[in-house]
């Protein structure tokens, strides 16, 4: 699988986790209403626990996706002015650029 695929999976996982959190909050509100109205909350609480367990599994899955994303090395970013890798210090880049601009090898 290529890096972009993993980023798509990560985006999808994040969206599903956000939706699951919203469902959990809705279920908690539903349980509170049932309690206030004096209804049996056994099944509603079971569903809430299931939703929370599912959220934990989703979070674990996202962690695995993040591990996959981190295994891909990003290509080095080139300095647009002189083609040097952007990881060099500013003084190194300025010196190299100036030297290469006047035709002197760094």
Structure description:
This protein folds into 2 domains: 3-71; 77-106, no CATH class. The protein has 3 helices and no strands. The protein is elongated. With 106 residues, the protein is mainly alpha-helical. Helix 1 (3-37) runs antiparallel to helix 2 (42-71). Mean pLDDT is 81; it is low at 88-106. 0% of the residues are buried.
How would you describe this structure in keywords?
106 residues, 73% helix
How are the SSEs placed, and which strands pair?
Elements: H1 3-37, H2 42-71, H3 90-101
Describe this structure in a few short sentences.
By secondary structure, this protein is an all-alpha fold. It has helices at residues 3-37, 42-71, 90-101.
How does the helix and strand content classify structurally?
mainly alpha
Bin the strand percentage: under 5%
| Outline type | elongated
Q: Give start-end ranges of low-pLDDT stretches.
A: 88-106
Percent helix: over 70%
Number of domains: 2
Q: Report the C-alpha radius of gyration, rounded.
A: 26 Å
* Biggest β-sheet description: none
Order of helices and strands: HHH
Mean pLDDT: 81
Total number of beta strands: 0
Q: How many helix segments? A: 3
End-to-end Cα distance? 40 Å
């Amino acid at each position: 699988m290529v890096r972009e695929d993993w980023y798509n999976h990560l985006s999808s996982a994040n969206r599903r986790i956000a939706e699951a959190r919203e469902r959990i909050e809705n279920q908690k509100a539903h349980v509170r209403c049932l309690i206030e109205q004096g209804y049996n909350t056994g099944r509603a609480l079971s569903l809430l626990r299931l939703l929370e367990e599912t959220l934990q599994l989703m979070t674990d899955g996202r962690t695995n996706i993040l591990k996959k994303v981190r295994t891909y090395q990003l290509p080095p970013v080139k300095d647009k002015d002189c083609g040097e890798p952007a990881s060099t210090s500013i003084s190194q880049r300025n010196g190299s650029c100036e030297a290469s601009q006047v035709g002197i090898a760094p």
